[in-house]
Design brief:
Keywords: Cell membrane, Membrane, Transmembrane, Transmembrane helix, Transport
Main location: membrane
Mean pLDDT: 84
Shape: flat
Protein name: Carbohydrate ABC transporter membrane protein 2, CUT1 family
Order of helices and strands: HHHHHHHHHH
Subcellular location: Cell membrane
Number of helices: 10
Low-confidence stretches: none
Number of domains: 2
Distance between the termini: 58 Å
CATH superfamily of the largest domain: MetI-like
Helix content: over 70%
Family: Belongs to the binding-protein-dependent transport system permease family.
Length: 210
Amino acid sequence: MKRPFAQQRLVKRVALYAGVLILTVYSAFPIYWMVVSSLRPTQEMLLNPTLVPRTLTLEYYYSLLAQTDYPRQFLNSLIVALSTVALTMVLSIMIAYGVTRQRIRGKQMIIAGMLYAYMFAPLLMAIPLYAMFAAIGLNDTLMSLVISHLTITMPLGVWFLWGFFKTMPFELEEAAMVDGCTRLGAFLRVVLPLSVPGLVTVAIFSFLLS
């Protein structure tokens, strides 16, 4: 009786691993093809491309670095993305925690406003933001790009962390304050460590959206 059951478990496990392997290959193959295509000579890529390239070349990468200002553009993108993530995390934590733990009039309106702001298409805010940046002299700067990205990432961060803080029992902070922590100490030593999964999620979404 035990042998058929063990065989069934083995078959199910093999089928599961095979399915995971197939999905992994299916998802990773476009990335692989993109990378190997960037390393093929032009003639081979157009006439007879194979799964494994016969010859490799770095010609396209040399042309990219020689004919464009790609390193500077990449650095600007990295600066904007990291700045957006940092500001989104700080502002979202402050707003979400304050709305969750403090008695603030109209806090439901604040959360609803964040949700409604996220529903607007980014293109609808392009012209007003450009006019505002031109009026204060911030057009064509990295700061204006960071602020523009914050209009997209911060509502999502506040909404997500508000739901996360709302499910966290306040008794944990009270216990920390009974043991001698201040309100800030309880927040730093109790709330933030327990909020790491939510914070990481917001950081990843902010980085991808920016």
